[in-house]
Fold this protein.
Amino acid sequence: MGEPKSDERVYSIAASMNLPAEETDPVHLDGPISAYSTAIEDVAFLIRSQHRIHILQLLSEGPQTRDALLTATGASRVTLSRILSDLEDRNWIDRSYENGELSITDVGAAIYEEVAELIETVHVGNEKSHVTGQLPIGWRGLQLRHLVDSEVVVDDAADPMAASRAVADAIAESGSVRVLASTVTQLSMKNGLASRRNGVRPDDQVVFDADATEVCLENDSVTEQWTALESTAETPTFFSYDQPFPCEVYLVDDRTVFLMTWGKTEGATTVIKSENSRVVEWARVTFQNLRSESIALLDCERAPST
């Protein structure tokens, strides 16, 4: 199978090199759209038929016989024969004359992967159109399609604390959590993550962005809370990053991600939950990279009073 040319590859390469995704270039058509008329016609040909996409999907999983494709797609023999002929003419599939099996070509595999990603993106955009404007799409490589099976667990402007409660409940039942935080509201509740009755959990870590760091250092009540929690830990729990975060990220037990975002309307807070492996990996790598670029909150200097 050919190597896919996708944004995800670019961002995974950037992540492996510890490069911010913002340093990678977005994909654009090189030249006027008219230069791609034949390609556009082929894309239109493919997406006009669910059977065509389904056949490429099946073949991307391995070679198939004609009878297997017939059963899986539910297409008539005439329809299937026409589709296979069209796909073969475009060099998207191959037919083995030895055993009669059909397989996908490298070109077909690359095209199917790109189309599948487009379908996922459109699906999420339609399904979550009321909150997509709040999502930090593109930040550190987060793609809209990654949220294909995510769940909006809170979307309640009437109850600003609903989002914090939803996340706090998940944290209370967890074994570990790592957080990218842009607020310090309800710090002690968030850091039910940072303390059990027997003290701080060693795997819990919080990175505050620039704005949240300022509050942590300048608000006496907040300072008292986090320093008390930190004093019981053998290694630093709280860290400071010198740039703002576009949302809050909670990685719970390395298998569940909560994204907390804010809308333009005052009090409009949304929490999205995902256990998708791509989102979990994105959260893990993003936290790891930002944590490596941060300093311990205890090492930050409090601004002198004027």
